[in-house]
Automatic annotation (TrEMBL):
The keyword Membrane does not apply. InterPro entries: Ppm1/Ppm2/Tcmp, TcmP-like. This is Class I SAM-dependent methyltransferase. GO terms for biological process: methylation. GO terms for molecular function: methyltransferase activity. It comes from the Bacteria. Its EC number is 2.1.1.-. It holds the Pfam family LCM. Keywords: Methyltransferase, Transferase. Transmembrane segments: none annotated. The lineage of its organism: Bacteria, Bacillati, Actinomycetota, Actinomycetes, Mycobacteriales.
Length: 273
């Protein structure tokens, strides 16, 4: 029997950004191991198997039986929108912003000519490189998305898919606006997929998470007013699709939340430009 050597992540500090990324990776891995998964992120499960970390402690903190579904529903919706775009544009460029340890590039069946860029802060990309390597059609870029220079690395001659999951709420509104302007100035045509938190997000964060959430909006359609190149296509609650959850008590819990205004706390948005 061959044994793959584990990659040592024990230096990842509890509570750091890198730790948060391991947390969502772990939730996706747990969901992929459940019966009838919604996302079925086998690449996340493989990554967790390869990483040497205190997963038992992570489990006690992340509570996968309740929380894995939220992460899976959100990621699955963005995957579906991404797959539809790549089906229409098999030569697309993809910018996956704030990728963390997400395995979207590996769980989607990418057409051969797609060029995928996973972008995150340098410290996150450094960690990511312990697991994955650049290859034809796949590159990692370590930079803040609020810098302008990383964009010079990306081709502009193809339809462009931009995915930002769990990212824009951590940027001040002025930086979100500047980023969107830079993106639509550089790329001629494509789609922008992202989630937004309600204005409650920054307020709650001031109390519970040291104010790390900076931007919230009651309706992401306001982006059309900021940037006339952006056209709204659709939006969904991150909880939409809860009917597929394969656990009766958790499904009922999500259904209950979905029946209240809290369903609009985290919303997934699709725009074109
Ligand atoms: C909540 S995590 C989400 C990670 C991943 N998208 C997922 O769903 O698992 C937020 C990610 O955004 C990244 N991020 C935050 N601000 C950033 C910035 N200015 N530039 C690049 N990445 C940023 C963080 O480093 C982190 O990896």
């Amino acid at each position: 029997m061959t044994q793959t050597r584990k990659v040592d992540f024990s230096g990842v500090r509890w509570g750091s950004v890198e730790w948060t990324n391991l947390g969502t990776l772990y939730l996706r891995a747990c969901e992929s191991r459940s019966p009838n998964p919604i996302l079925g992120d086998d690449a996340a499960a493989e990554a967790v198997d390869r990483i040497d970390y205190d997963w038992a402690r992570m489990r006690r903190y992340m509570l996968p039986p309740a929380n894995q579904w939220l992460v899976a529903l959100r990621a699955a919706r963005l995957d579906d929108w991404s797959a539809a775009f790549l089906g229409r544009h098999p030569d697309a460029v993809v910018l996956h912003l704030g990728c963390g340890m997400d395995t979207r590039a590996f769980r989607l069946r990418l057409p051969r000519h797609v060029q995928w860029f996973d972008v995150d802060q340098p410290n996150v990309i450094e960690l990511r490189r312990k697991l994955y390597a650049d290859r034809d059609g796949y590159r990692m870029l370590g930079s803040s998305v609020t810098e302008a220079s990383w964009l010079d690395e990306t081709p502009t001659d193809r339809p462009t898919l931009i995915v930002a999951e769990g990212l824009l709420m951590y940027l001040p509104q002025s930086e979100v606006r500047t980023l969107l302007q830079r993106l639509t100035d550089r790329f001629t045509t494509g789609e922008l997929l992202f989630d937004t938190l309600s204005p409650m997000g920054p307020r709650l964060s001031k109390v519970f998470s040291k104010g790390i959430v900076k931007w919230g909006t009651s309706d992401a359609r306001e982006l059309e007013r900021w940037n006339p190149r952006l056209r709204f296509l659709e939006q969904n609650s991150a909880l939409a699709g809860y009917e597929r959850i394969n656990s009766t008590p958790i499904r009922l819990l999500y259904r209950l939340i979905h029946a209240t205004p809290a369903r609009n706390y985290d919303v997934l948005n699709r725009f074109e430009f």
